[in-house]
């Protein structure tokens, strides 16, 4: 799962993995566990570049396992190295959500270090505009909508996956 903060990568990914009966792993959670710190603490103590290096390591390691759903962090798909690793080992799914929905979902949580600015909505907008071209490189896209539940979203992802002949057999 790739896409912006608040798109639902973690929540939809977890539901999707349950439906498919495969493990679910979240790269942000893995980084927090390995560092024994929150992402905000990693950013504050070691900086974003350090976080990005750990993120690449974690994603490459997770991609080496068996069939699974991996939810990445919102910035992961920006790096060409990560995109290449993901497309070698898996299928990327962009959860596309518009800014109003993203903002609605991130505004109440102070856990995202990149949004700790004087104008978080403006920051979210700038990040979105700068990133959308990278997310568009994903293999598949699924649109989020305020009325879609997590199972609705997971089913949309499955429907998109079924357009891929290489996964059709595995998820039937
Ligand atoms: N379809 C949905 N229905 C209801 N709530 C949702 C849905 N998708 C996401 N949410 C909620 O929106 C919030 C943000 O979702 P989530 O944490 O999955 O985003 P994310 O893409 O993983 O963001 P990040 O890049 O910051 O990790 C969560 O509280 C989640 O439960
Ligand atoms: O969009 C981003 O760059 C980020 C999203 C989160 O998932 C975390 O990976 C971190 O807060 C950075
Ligand atoms: Mg997440």
From TrEMBL:
Cofactor(s), names only, from the UniProt record: Mg(2+)
Positions annotated to bind Mg(2+): 10
Gene3D superfamilies documented for this protein: P-loop containing nucleotide triphosphate hydrolases
One Gene Ontology term of the molecular function aspect: kinase activity
EC number: 2.7.1.71
Family matches, as InterPro entries: P-loop_NTPase, Shikimate/glucono_kinase, Shikimate_kinase/TSH1, Shikimate_kinase_CS
Transmembrane segments: none
Family annotation (Pfam families): SKI
Keywords of this entry: Amino-acid biosynthesis, Aromatic amino acid biosynthesis, ATP-binding, Cytoplasm, Kinase, Magnesium, Metal-binding, Nucleotide-binding, Transferase
Residues given in the record as ATP binding sites: 6-11, 112
Location of this chain's protein in the cell: Cytoplasm
Cofactor note: Binds 1 Mg(2+) ion per subunit.
Record pathway: Metabolic intermediate biosynthesis; chorismate biosynthesis; chorismate from D-erythrose 4-phosphate and phosphoenolpyruvate: step 5/7
SUPFAM superfamilies the record matches: P-loop containing nucleoside triphosphate hydrolases
Top EC category: transferase
Reaction catalysis annotation: shikimate + ATP = 3-phosphoshikimate + ADP + H(+)
Binding site for substrate: 28, 52, 74, 131
Known role: Catalyzes the specific phosphorylation of the 3-hydroxyl group of shikimic acid using ATP as a cosubstrate.
Subunit structure: Monomer.
Family: Belongs to the shikimate kinase family.
Protein name in the entry: Shikimate kinase
Species whose genome carries this gene: Sinisalibacter lacisalsi
Source species taxonomy: Bacteria, Pseudomonadati, Pseudomonadota, Alphaproteobacteria, Rhodobacterales
UniProt gene name: aroK
């Amino acid at each position: 799962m790739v896409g912006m903060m608040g798109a639902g990568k973690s929540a939809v990914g977890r539901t999707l993995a349950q439906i498919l009966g495969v493990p679910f792993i979240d790269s942000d959670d893995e980084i927090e566990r390995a560092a024994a710190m929150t992402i905000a603490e990693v950013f504050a103590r070691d900086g974003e570049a350090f976080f990005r290096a750990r993120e690449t390591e974690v994603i490459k390691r997770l991609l080496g396992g068996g069939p699974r759903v991996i939810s990445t962090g919102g910035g992961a798909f920006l790096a060409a190295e990560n995109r290449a690793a993901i497309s070698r080992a898996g299928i990327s799914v962009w959860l596309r959500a518009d800014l109003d929905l993203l903002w609605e979902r991130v505004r109440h949580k102070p856990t995202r270090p990149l949004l700790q600015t004087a104008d978080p909505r403006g920051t979210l907008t700038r990040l979105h505009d700068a990133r959308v071209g990278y997310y568009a490189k994903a293999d598949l896209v699924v649109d989020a909508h305020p009325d879609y539940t997590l199972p609705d979203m997971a089913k949309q992802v499955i429907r998109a996956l079924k357009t891929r002949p290489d996964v059709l057999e595995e998820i039937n």
